[in-house]
Write a structure and sequence with these properties.
The chain is mostly helical. The chain is 46% helix and 5% strand. It has 2 domains: 74 residues, no CATH class; 63 residues, no CATH class. It contains 5 helices and 2 strands, in the order H-E-E-H-H-H-H. Strand 1 and strand 2 form a beta hairpin. Helix 3 runs antiparallel to helix 4. The longest helix has 21 residues. The chain is elongated. The termini are far apart. InterPro entries: MSMEG_1276-like_NTP-PPase_dom, PRib-ATP_PPHydrolase-like.
């Protein structure tokens, strides 16, 4: 384990360029991964924004390309599955709040999380698509806009 101080102190609550670009980042205030080693430092909350959420794989690289120093860690399998479930809720919430112009992008985010969840459960994308097709064949899809109101009798 390597100990070092965070290199860029910031006022509490101040957003970095990378954070402004990407929204709030996944951070662990005392860890960051550099190459193959995890660096644990004496960083305090005034120096690192800690939001601790699952992000896409390239986010640390993108943040670095904007001159920032991201902090993150790789989740263990149980945490990863829980974080994926939370991410699905987050993405659905974003979709529900999106305008029609942004809806397709939000749906793509939802699909990315669904495919990651399926893979985590041991199901490949083609198998998931086949399960969806079978269910649509058996029960139908949602193309006819049918609203259930009950039964008579």
């Amino acid at each position: 384990m390597v100990t070092e101080r965070c290199s860029r102190p910031r006022a509490r609550g101040a957003l970095s360029t990378g954070q402004a670009f990407l929204g709030r980042l996944v951070t662990d205030p005392c860890s960051r991964v550099t190459g193959d080693e995890t660096v644990r430092g004496a960083c305090d909350a005034a120096q690192v924004t800690n939001t601790s959420k699952l992000v896409r794989d390239r986010i640390p690289e993108i943040v670095r390309s904007h001159g920032e120093d991201p902090t993150y860690y790789q989740a263990d399998p149980a945490e990863y599955r829980n974080r994926l479930r939370a991410k699905l809720t987050e993405e659905v919430t974003e979709f529900l709040a999106a305008t029609d112009d942004d809806a397709v992008e939000e749906l793509a985010d939802i699909l990315e999380v669904v495919y990651a969840l399926a893979a985590d459960l041991g199901t490949a994308q083609p198998e998931l698509d086949e399960a969806r097709r079978q269910k649509a064949t058996t029960n139908g899809a949602f193309a006819h806009r049918i609203i259930w109101t009950g039964t008579r009798g």
